[in-house]
Amino acid sequence: MPRSQNKVASHRRRKRILSEAKGYWGARSKVLTVAKHSVDKGYQYAYRDRRAKKRTFRQLWITRINAAARLHGTTYSELIDGLNKKHVGINRKLLAELAVSNPDAFIEIVKFVKA
Question: Are 73 and 106 in contact, with CB atoms under 8 Å apart?
Answer without folding.
Answer: no
